[in-house]
Design brief:
This protein has one domain: HUPs (Rossmann fold, 3-Layer(aba) Sandwich), CATH 3.40.50.620. The chain has six helices and five strands. It has a five-stranded parallel sheet with strand order 3-2-1-4-5, with helices on both faces. Strand 1, helix 1 and strand 2 form a beta-alpha-beta unit. Helix 4 packs parallel to helix 6. The two termini are 19 Å apart.
Length: 145
Amino acid sequence: MNRFLTGKPVVVPTDFSPESLRAIETALNMVEDRSLIRVIHVSPIPAGGEFGSVWSSITADDIEQGAREQFSKVRDKHDFLKNVNFEAKIGDPGLVITDYATEINAELIVIPSHGRTGLSRLLLGSVAERVIRYATCPVLVLRGK
């Protein structure tokens, strides 16, 4: 695949799904320097808004550390993830992803679309749609299988 990006970071959100892994592979094929790939996982804020009241002793740091550990396990299984930067954050996924992309002056966001329809889409919302709506850089949405 031709590498056509200019050398700015490329943000790839992940939920650790196979579609997310495909998005990371796609982004890696677009850059010459793999350190430009910034994989981010955003855990939603728990219902009620406060960690201690919902999950007792679990803190925001615990949740972020859990995401880092999960990515480490996935990285160990896939050689193409070696030396890829990873961030774990908490908040509204669509907004946190776009804020992060703006903060690091990203050239592109590569995000999978899980293709949910109907009630599941209504209840879960669409992170990809929110990213498209709020991003200040181009967004490449990869359709499901």
